[in-house]
Amino acid sequence: MGFLSGVNFLLESFRGGNLDGSHYVSALSSKNLSIVQDLVLPLDFSETPHSIAGCCKGLVCLDDEEGRFVIWNPSTGEHKELHVRSSLQSPPGADESFFSCSGFGYDFESQDYKVVRFMEHVFEDEYPRFEAELYSFNSHSWKKIHYPYQADLFHGPSIYINGMFYWLAHDIRDHMFVLSFNFATDQFSSFPLPVDFDVLGTDLLFIELDESLAAIVYSCGGTELSFDIWVMNNESWIKKSTFGPIFDVDRPLGLWKKSKFVFEGSKCELLLYDFATRKLKHLGFENDNLKEMELFPYVENTQSLRNLLGF
Question: Residues 31, 6: contact at Cβ < 8 Å?
Answer without folding.
Answer: yes
